[in-house]
What does this fold into?
Amino acid sequence: MPRVRVRQHVNPLSKKYSEPIFPPNWEKVFAQPNQPLHLDIGCARGEFLLQMAQAEPDWNFLGVEIREPLVEQANQLREELGINNLYYLFGNINNSMPSLCNSLPAGILQRVTIQFPDPWFKKRQAKRRVVQPELVEDIATYLAVGGIVFLQSDIEIVAQEMRDRFDEQPAFQRQGGESWLTNNPFPIPTEREGSTLSRNEPVYRALFVKSDGIKDEV
It folds into this structure.
């Protein structure tokens, strides 16, 4: 399938993306809707989830992406391959976690990944970054206890901001000590991860586990 050309960045604060995502009928989307769910925020072309869904048929995978042509192409490929534990949604996750998660069975969201999000380098554009405090609060609300959040970026200041915001939320316990996580806990790398590592450039990773809201004593 030829790749569709899209803009690299879109402004999530524009009016076009102000409406929350309308949840689909999950029983029509997934063959086994009660399987544990992995949510990939900013899934781009969805190739990471495409491979994960085939590697882990006992999980359901949901990708949310703000660039609609990528979602359309990803769902087309999913249909062609007949994969029934994977789906992609177009929209802005920053105003959509409650509407999506309230439509799901309680406790079914067990993994969240945010990988190589748009960095928005300029200070005045930092509010466009996906990992805002409100999103962290939403993930803390809807992720099952014992569920995980995996973050990675090739931009250290972006990775640091994401890590700090999850560190500040009492529901999350960071794994692996104070240093960056050395290895990706998932067997499938994203395209950006593979290309970054092929150039011998660093990837900054952090892994969090949802706890009962009480930080461990140091």
About this structure: The mean pLDDT is 90. Helices lie at 26-29, 47-55, 68-81, 97-101, 133-142, 156-167, 191-198. The beta strands are 37-41, 60-65, 86-90, 109-115, 148-153, 172-175, 204-210.
